[in-house]
Design brief:
The chain is an alpha/beta fold. Among the domains are: 87 residues, Gyrase A, domain 2 (2-Layer Sandwich), CATH 3.30.1360.70; 64 residues, no CATH class. The strands form four sheets. Strands 1-2-4-3 form a four-stranded antiparallel sheet. Strand 7 and strand 8 form a beta hairpin. It is globular.
C-alpha cells in the first residue's frame, strides 16, 4: 500500500515515461500551496522539458493524455497551469473511503512500505564511565523517534546502543572501587552518583602517582581477562546501565539492555581489522601509530589527514571499533546503517565510511549514513551548562522540566487533583524538552529556553498536547447515541482540508524515514492542529444537525488518532485532559 503522494508520483512518472520514452523520471509531486492549485502538483515536467528542449506546457499536455483519471479512483481531475505545472484534484469519495477505513482500523492510517529494509540505528551511545548529560539528549531522542517511525512503516529495525564500556579509564575506576570496597556502604554511596565517582577517581589518578600506577596495572589485569577485575568491571557497568535505564524510562525511550552494542564486543576482532587493512596495503605508520591515508581527505594546508586505527602503544580507537561494526553489519545483511551522532564527528564518519569501502568491509549493498545533529546552546550562545559552568546532568534537566510544568498546570487548572497534576506535569515536562529538540532541524544548533518550550502557543509540545486533549473533550461531550466512526460529508472547505491533512501522515513519515529529519513530523502535527482549530471555529459540531454532528465527530476522532499516532512516533505520550 502506498501513500497518496507516492501513488500520484508513480502515476505521473509512468505517464512521463509513455510521453517521452524516459525510463527514470522525477514527477516531483508536491502538496499544492493553495486550494485553487488542486491538492497536489506535479512539477517534474518543467525540468524534463528543459532537458529535451521541448515546450513544457505542450509536454505537460502529452503527459496528462496518458493519465487515466476515470480508471484511477483517487484522481478526480487534472489541469495544466502556467508554463507546465500539472494540478491534481483528488476524488472526494476516495478520500472519504480512505478516511473511514483509517477510523475503523487505525493501523491503516500509516501505509506500510512496499520495500521493507533491515536498518540498524546506532544511537544514544553513552560512556558508561559517567552519567548521561545534556549532550546525550539529542542523539537519544532523535534516534528513538527514527526507530519508531521506521518500524511503523514496516522496516526491520535493529536498535544498537554503541556504549563506551572499555578503555584505560576503567582501570582508574576499578582501582578506586577497590579502595572503597572495604566499606560496602561507602562504595554504594559513591556509585550512586557516577559523575562524582569519576571525578574523585580522576583526582586521585592525577594527584597520586602510586594510585595512577595501580590503575594502569588494573587495566592490564582487566584486558588479560583476570576474573577478579572482570567482576569489578561488570559491577561498574551494571551500575552505569541502571543509571541509563532510569533515564530511558523517564524519557520514554525504547532502548533496553538487549540493544547494547558495547565496544568490548569487538575486542577480539580488532586485530583482524588491522590485519585486513594491512593485507589491502592501506596501512601507513606515522609517528609510531598505524593510520590509513586516503586521497580525498586533506587538511587546510593540503596535508593528508589520517584515520588512526592503532596507537603507538598498540591500543585501538573508536575508528577501529567502528570499522569492525561495519563489517559485522554487512555480514548480517543490513541495508542501511544509521549513526545518530554529534555533527562534530562528521569527519570521523566520512573517513570511517570511506576506509570501510576501500578495504572491502562495506559493499554497495549497505548505505552508511551519519545522522548528524547540532549542539544544545544556552542563551549566551555557548553549549548549555549550569551557572557554575558544569555540564548539566540529563536527569536534573528532566526533573526541572517536570517541576516547571507542575507549576504551570497548577496555575492554569487548579481544579485538578494533585495526582492528576503530577501526571500532567510528568508528561508535559518531558514532552516539552523532547519536542523542543525534535522540532528543530537536527543539523542546527538551538538555544534551550524554558519559557518557549513550555508555552501553550506556537509549535510546542504543550500546544499539541492541549489540542489533542481538547478534541478528546469534544468527543466526551457527544450525546450517548452519537456515532463517531463514519464521516459522511465534507461540505465545508475546512472539513476537506483537515481530512486530507490526516491522510498525508504516511507521506510525511516516508520523508522522515528517507531523510531522517524528525522536525518534518513536528511541523506536520503543528499544521494539523492549526487546521483543526480552523475547522472547529468554522464548523459547528455538537450544535449541528444529527447527521452533520456525527460526521464531524468522526472527523474529530480521526484527527485525534492522527495526533496520537504522530506524537507517539516522536516518543511523546498524550493526555486525555490538561
Amino acid at each position: 500500500m502506498s501513500s497518496i503522494k507516492q501513488h500520484l508520483s508513480n502515476v505521473v512518472a509512468a505517464a512521463i515515461n509513455q510521453a517521452t520514452g524516459l525510463e527514470d523520471s522525477n514527477a516531483n509531486v508536491i502538496t499544492a500551496s493553495k486550494p485553487e492549485f488542486g491538492d497536489y502538483q506535479a512539477n517534474g515536467v518543467m525540468a524534463i522539458a528543459k532537458q529535451q528542449k521541448a515546450n513544457p506546457r505542450e509536454l505537460a499536455g502529452r503527459v496528462i493524455e496518458h493519465i487515466d483519471c476515470e480508471g484511477d479512483a483517487l484522481i478526480d481531475k487534472i489541469e495544466i497551469a502556467g508554463p507546465g505545472f500539472i494540478n491534481i484534484h483528488l476524488s472526494p469519495s476516495a478520500l472519504l473511503d480512505a478516511a473511514n477505513a483509517a477510523i475503523s482500523d487505525p493501523e491503516l492510517l500509516v501505509a506500510k512500505t512496499m520495500s521493507p529494509e533491515k536498518i540498524v540505528v546506532d544511537y544514544s551511545s553513552p560512556n558508561l564511565a559517567k552519567e548521561m548529560h545534556v549532550g546525550h539528549l539529542r542523539g537519544t531522542i532523535i534516534g528513538d523517534s527514527l526507530v519508531r517511525i521506521l518500524e511503523r512503516l514496516g522496516h526491520q529495525v535493529v536498535r544498537q546502543n554503541h556504549v563506551g564500556d572499555w578503555g584505560t579509564q576503567f582501570g582508574m575506576l576499578i582501582a578506586y572501587m577497590q579502595e572503597l570496597s572495604a566499606d560496602e556502604s561507602a562504595l554504594n554511596a559513591g556509585l550512586s552518583d557516577l559523575e562524582d565517582f569519576y571525578r574523585a577517581a580522576k583526582d586521585r589518578f592525577d594527584s597520586d602517582p602510586a594510585f595512577a600506577d595501580t590503575a594502569r596495572k588494573c587495566v592490564v589485569k582487566l584486558q588479560s581477562g583476570d576474573p577478579e577485575f572482570l567482576a569489578a568491571w561488570e559491577r561498574f557497568i551494571d551500575e552505569s546501565l541502571k543509571h541509563c535505564e532510569a533515564l530511558y524510562d523517564k524519557l520514554g525511550v525504547s532502548l533496553s539492555r538487549d540493544d547494547l552494542d558495547a565496544e568490548s564486543r569487538y575486542n577480539d576482532d580488532l586485530p583482524r581489522v588491522i590485519a585486513e587493512l594491512e593485507a589491502k596495503n592501506l596501512l601507513t605508520e606515522s609517528e609510531g601509530a598505524r593510520c590509513v591515508f586516503l586521497d580525498e581527505f586533506k587538511g587546510k594546508e593540503g596535508d593528508p589527514l589520517p584515520l588512526i586505527v592503532e596507537k603507538s602503544d598498540g591500543g585501538f580507537l573508536y575508528s577501529t571499533t567502528d570499522l569492525a561494526a561495519v563489517r559485522l553489519r554487512v555480514k548480517d545483511k543490513v541495508d542501511r546503517s544509521l549513526y545518530v551522532v554529534d555533527a562534530r564527528q562528521s569527519l570521523h564518519f566520512q573517513q570511517v565510511f570511506a576506509v570501510a569501502r576501500a578495504a572491502g568491509f562495506a559493499d554497495n549493498g549497505i548505505s552508511l549514513e551519519h545522522i548528524a545533529y547540532g549542539t544544545m546552546m544556552g542563551k549566551d550562545g555557548r553549549p548549555f551548562k549550569t551557572r557554575s559552568g558544569d555540564i548539566v546532568k540529563l536527569i536534573d534537566l528532566l526533573d526541572e522540566g517536570v517541576r516547571r510544568a507542575h507549576a504551570i498546570v497548577s496555575e492554569k487548572n487548579p481544579a485538578l487533583s494533585e495526582e492528576e497534576r503530577q501526571l500532567v506535569a510528568q508528561r508535559v515536562g518531558i514532552a516539552a524538552v523532547k519536542y523542543a529538540d525534535l522540532s528543530k532541524n537536527r543539523t542546527s544548533d538551538y538555544v534551550f529556553d524554558w519559557s518557549t518550550m513550555l508555552s501553550f502557543e506556537g509549535n510546542t509540545a504543550p500546544y499539541l498536547l492541549y489540542a489533542y486533549a481538547r478534541i478528546r473533550s469534544i468527543l466526551r461531550k457527544a450525546p450517548d447515541n452519537a456515532t463517531i466512526n463514519h464521516i459522511v460529508q465534507i461540505g465545508a472547505e475546512e472539513e476537506r482540508a483537515l481530512m486530507l491533512k490526516t491522510l498525508q501522515l504516511p507521506e510525511v513519515l516516508e520523508a522522515v524515514a528517507r531523510d531522517c529529519y524528525p522536525n518534518q513530523l513536528c511541523n506536520y502535527l503543528y499544521e494539523l492542529s492549526g487546521l483543526f482549530m480552523r475547522f472547529y471555529e468554522a464548523c459547528p459540531i455538537l450544535k449541528a444537525d444529527e447527521e452533520t454532528m456525527n460526521s464531524r465527530l468522526a472527523l474529530c476522532n480521526l484527527t485525534a488518532e492522527t495526533l496520537h499516532t504522530g506524537l507517539g512516533l516522536l516518543g511523546i505520550e498524550t493526555l486525555e485532559q490538561m
